[in-house]
Amino acid sequence: MGNADYVYPSTNVECAHRVAIPPPQPFLKSLKNSLKETFFPDDPLRQFKNQPPSRKLKLGLQYIFPIFEWGPRYNLEFLKSDLVAGITIASLAIPQGISYARLANLPPILGLYSSFIPPLVYAMMGSSRDLAVGTVAVASLLTASMLGNEVNANENPTLYLHLAFTSTFFAGLFQAALGFLRLGFIVDFLSHATIVGFMAGAATVVCLQQLKGILGLDHFTHGTDLISVMRSVFTQTHKWRWESAVLGFVFLFYLLLARYSSKRRPKLFWISAMAPLTSVILGSLFVYLTHAEKNGVQVIGELKKGLNPPSIMDLAFGSPYLTTTIRTGIVTGVIALAEGIAVGRSFAMFKNYHIDGNKEMIAFGMMNVVGSCTSCYLTTGPFSRSAVNFNAGCKTAASNIVMALAVMITLLFLTPLFHYTPLVVLSSIIIAAMLGLINYEEAIHLWHLDKFDFLVCMGAYVGVVFGSVEIGLVIAVALSVLRLLLFVARPRTLVLGNIPNSMIYRSVHQYPNANNVPGILILEIDAPIYFANASYLRERISRWIDEEEDRLKTSGESSLQYVILDMGAVGNIDTSGISMLEEVKKTVDRRGLKLVLANPGGEVMKKLNKSKLIELIGQEWIYLTVGEAVGACNYMLHTCKPKNESETWSNNV
Amino acid sequence: MGNADYVYPSTNVECAHRVAIPPPQPFLKSLKNSLKETFFPDDPLRQFKNQPPSRKLKLGLQYIFPIFEWGPRYNLEFLKSDLVAGITIASLAIPQGISYARLANLPPILGLYSSFIPPLVYAMMGSSRDLAVGTVAVASLLTASMLGNEVNANENPTLYLHLAFTSTFFAGLFQAALGFLRLGFIVDFLSHATIVGFMAGAATVVCLQQLKGILGLDHFTHGTDLISVMRSVFTQTHKWRWESAVLGFVFLFYLLLARYSSKRRPKLFWISAMAPLTSVILGSLFVYLTHAEKNGVQVIGELKKGLNPPSIMDLAFGSPYLTTTIRTGIVTGVIALAEGIAVGRSFAMFKNYHIDGNKEMIAFGMMNVVGSCTSCYLTTGPFSRSAVNFNAGCKTAASNIVMALAVMITLLFLTPLFHYTPLVVLSSIIIAAMLGLINYEEAIHLWHLDKFDFLVCMGAYVGVVFGSVEIGLVIAVALSVLRLLLFVARPRTLVLGNIPNSMIYRSVHQYPNANNVPGILILEIDAPIYFANASYLRERISRWIDEEEDRLKTSGESSLQYVILDMGAVGNIDTSGISMLEEVKKTVDRRGLKLVLANPGGEVMKKLNKSKLIELIGQEWIYLTVGEAVGACNYMLHTCKPKNESETWSNNV
Questions:
Q1: What values do phi and psi take at A346, rounded to 5?
Q2: Alpha carbons B244 and B234: distance in angstroms, whole number
Q3: According to a count of CB atoms within 10 Å of the terminal CB, is the N or C end of chain B lower?
Q4: Chain B residues whose beta carbon lies within 8 Å of the beta carbon of residue A193
């Protein structure tokens, strides 16, 4: 309390500005504002403002069905481009569809069904111009592993199929609900690092599963982890079929070569895009001509002709496995959303148009709900197919319609052609697609840029490969959330110094040439002061003062008189934080020092005012900038020298 | 890109300081630093530095057993004070101990056992001078409800007793482990608001349970929620015993009166402290003289003479209920810790000494582990008893030893005196103690100060009263964590303006007199840029630019040229955040504007540098302060006027 008899400095120092308390807002208004910021940050209804009702109706229709917006502007040039793109992606969609359906332990024909109806729905409701709709490997694998835990797909295929439809229904419902309720930000919690690690892990797991096809094994583990698969593979060495393996590696080599050449010359994208269909045709011809199906090369066999049968009556809402289907739906739905939205956003960035995440979710959701009633399983916007669509020069979502029509023709007339397609070719197609998902360069980039993100990425990868897909996801999300909590729970406190020849104060760690101010300790708090960090900050501030006093004692410098807290980065404070500041004030007083606040923000000032803490600290000890606070303290130090001080002051501000 | 042909301003504007990239640190060193900050923020080993080994040993012993530190300084004056305080708290401890043991459905004698051994352990290991050790109502109730779900205490008392010892053991183990592993900050996640709501809810529930004793009912619900209790009470109106109720209300009135008078005159604290023992004595005398036990007034009955029997062999590690005991142990252990540490800290604040949270946890943990082996159940530092201890003038933890000795004498010689103590008096004692825990004034204070904290508090209260103790706790912790996540997921972005007659830029919301700078939009981001808010911030920044351009268009002002992002409050950035900034840079470029950064911190500069984003933005467009950034932009606006501009500029900086 040694400084209690000082004159208040604010009246003496020039240029000191008062820190304002923001004008009070009625509770309901501020509640409305913060709800709006939380759920409608993009203000989606802005365009509806001040419009006549007929225009509003039109805008509303265009909002829900973007096809009404771009449809009228559609022209022949667009059609030509979309036709080429649509046929190209259809040639990719057919073999990939069949492969991924097998990955999900579903009848191969479902892959074709799923490339027919959902793209039509998306073409009407989706706002991306480049997204190509279809099934994806990771969601297929997840469906197989989560439903497979409850029902064996080989022993009870009908029940398994119905559960798959039901979980697709719930996935769609969940996706649409997230969009309707403006909760799209849940997807943001799957950070970029999580997705890199998770995708690579899932790709590894999917490749491992293909060892069954490549080696021509009949029995295989139901586990997806590395250890189960390796055990399953190496305990059956006597059952490996070399015919199958040779065929597989030949096609894999061809596919990778095609991709490599497309990568070198982006204009040759069609080589890579057509390669899967070419492989299927060549493989089928080979089997048909050599009768290899009798020599250990498994083939697809009969595929039913005809369009999607309705499956609305197959949705098993009364099943004892309902909770499993809901859980599967939610997990696969979120994963599918994360991929689809990330893909849509990336291509929108390229072409400079805007995508509304919540609207996309509704489109994905509706597409899956309709799909689940028409014998389709979970679809989204896979990266590989959308990239081909983009490269093939698609102009609008009409390329999805073209693809759907091509698949329809296949379903109606061409299914018998797939009878002799060898399974091992499908495995090669999957492996080739998956290897592109293992983005090790990005992982190295993460390591260089942000160690914690790398940890999250590795957590997801190791979790998926050695545990299961869900474990990997939980590890990664938990680590990501832990990081957020740690940021708040252990905020950084920085000591500030004076940048020479200025009134600016910055961290002495970042600016090694910044000078300490004699007699004054300036601390910056880098996070909101909440219950989770209040005790920590109290301890840490005490320790800074201890350390500073020790340092001054050993170096024989003038003793500490003022502690300035720079609150510029303190975005908010709660009641625990207010108590903490009260305690810090008491501690600092007890040590005979003076507590000074610099630059508290609006929220902090409001709380300081309401809690009367502002009077305890003294309004005259709260400054707008650190510079002004230091100026005032220095003024006090020089005009009213404490009795126990004898050194001469060196002032460098 | 309209500004690409401008001259770089930094060479033209005076006084512009370079933003430094902090000196690189080896990975292991920075990892060590951040681990130290997370787990050893208080640097507990500081005093051991540079000391000879013998001194280190002594300090270490004093660190673990603080009694070796204060013991040698103990003197007669201390003893006198501690004797008075110890006897006062013993008089409170005996009736409270019996009451709370009954609340936990345990034999009443356990309450006395628990006030004998644990205080002795704490006196040696604890660092608080004011904490009085004993059982608490909330933990007792929690034990009863969590263990009671598995085993009925009336049907299988021995098993129930053994499970109670086992869960006490695990509670102690967990508490000590938290302390050893420096994870004490977990307790911080129970915020002040949570504890206010939770305690009030628990007190309400405990009072409701006392209706059984007050109304003299034999059968009572096992539920703790308001609805079960009300149904149980009002379906048995014909079994209410008026004798019991009258006795109960008389004593309750006496106890509340005693507390009221003590509150009015703090010097009369002993009236309130002695009131429970007085009630017990008066009640027992009354029953003994009137033989009321034969008229519907239930009494304690036989209490076994003798000290705590060992119970180490009763720990039921092999029991099928092991997981229940572990769960009970962890939940009750955390609750007990939160109360004990909060109490210890509050009194330490009063008397200006320091308490080490992690060390206290080890002390609490050891006290419960030892307790569980000597027929005690969960103990901590209850607020009521510690407050009496403090008011009675205790000087050291020796008052706990005095209390333990008093309880020992009671156990050895005085237990028969409690034979006729009516249960209804115990109920009155509990209700009187509990009413003090319902801190409605604090809840009103929370409402005024921070609406979200009030919501957390009410969530805890309603959850406890209408659901269960665990539900209330989960609601409150989930809401608190949600708040932290929302702070990061939806950070505030503020528009800054110029404070007249200065180079200072602050929020126009907080400072209504701050002026916009023509042609420049200045935004402050108030949180770290992480995956959870990257998409939000991208959208929000676009919207700010949209809104600003709309505003300028309607008001006919000069068009927007620069967007300055004030990064002063951005404590950290992850890889998703870097991608977001890259995208913002592209969007801003596309609109023909220029992106300028002001005051990025050390972590942000490091990441910007590593990701090469610094080159994309241009080092010359990164300034140390907003003022310098605006100065540079203004310089550009005036010297190189864009071609499409014809208005005259009005510059007010």
A1: -60, -45
A2: 17
A3: N
A4: 531, 574-576
A615/A621 Cα distance (integer angstroms): 10
B499: nearest CA partner in chain A: A17
Chain A residues close to B456, C-beta within 8 Å: none
Residue A326: both structure tokens together: 């809901």
> Where would I find the H helices in A40-127?
53-64, 67-70, 76-103, 109-113, 117-125
CA gap B100, B576 in Å, rounded: 53
Predicted confidence band of residue A222 (pLDDT cuts 50, 70, 90): confident
Could you give the residue ranges of the DSSP H alpha helices within A117-225?
A: 117-125, 137-148, 157-180, 185-188, 192-215
Instruction: For the beta carbon of residue B316, count every other beta carbon within 10 angstroms.
Output: 19
Query: How far is residue B395 from each of residues A635, B361, B367, measured CA to CA in Å?
Result: 43, 21, 21
Q: Which class for B278: exposed (0-12), middle (13-18), buried (19 or more C-beta within 10 A)? A: middle
Instruction: Identify whether the C-beta of residue A107 lies closer than 8 Å to the C-beta of residue A150.
Output: no
Instruction: Tell me how far apart the alpha carbons of residues A456 and A476 are, in angstroms, rounded to a whole number.
Output: 5
**Radius of gyration for the alpha carbons in chain A, expressed in angstroms and rounded:** 32
Question: For position A641, what pLDDT does the model report?
Answer: 53
If we measure between CA atoms, which residue out of A190, A120, A137, A631 comes closest to residue A399? A120
pLDDT for position B562 = 94
Whether the Cβ atoms of residue B630 and residue B653 lie closer than 8 Å to each other? yes
User: Averaged over A429-433, what is the pLDDT?
Assistant: 85
Distance from CA of B536 to the nearest CA of A (A): 7
* DSSP tally for chain A: helices H, then strands E: 26, 6
pLDDT tens-place string over residues A20-69: 888 777 888 888 888 887 777 777 777 777 788 888 888 888 888 989 98
Q: Nearest chain B residue to A508 by CA: give it.
A: B22
Is the domain defined by A9-19+490-639 classed in CATH 3.40.630.10? no
Task: Look at B450 and A607 and tell me if their CB atoms are within 8 Å.
Answer: yes
Q: Position B518: which residue type?
A: P
Query: What is the spatial distance between Cα A154 and Cα A144, in angstroms, rounded to a whole number?
Result: 12
Query: What is the rounded CA–CA span in Å between residue B600 and residue B608?
Result: 9
CA dihedral in degrees (B179, B184, B186, B188; nearest 10)?
A: 150
Segment B358-380 shows an average pLDDT of: 94
CA dist., res. B313 & res. B374, Å (int): 10
What ipTM did this prediction achieve?
0.82
- The token duo for A123 is 């073409």
Predicted local confidence at residue A178, as pLDDT: 92
Place of tokens 């793109």: A85
Task: Give domain B9-20+491-639's CATH architecture.
Answer: 2-Layer Sandwich (3.30)
- Residues of B within 8 A of A574 (CB-CB) are 191, 193, 450, 452-453, 483
Give the burial class of A265: count Cβ atoms within 10 A of its Cβ; 0-12 exposed, 13-18 middle, 19 or more buried: exposed
Measured between beta carbons, which residues in chain A are less than 8 angstroms from residue B589? none
b/e per residue B101-112 (b: at least 16 CB within 10 A): bbbbbbbbbbbb
Structure-block tokens of residue B397: 């933890």
Cα(A618)–Cα(A7) distance, integer angstroms? 13
Which residue among B20, B37, B484 places its CB closest to the CB of A511? B20
In chain A, where the domains are located: 9-19+490-639, 68-484
Q: pTM for this structure?
A: 0.81
pLDDT at A1: 36
d(CA A419, CA A291): 12
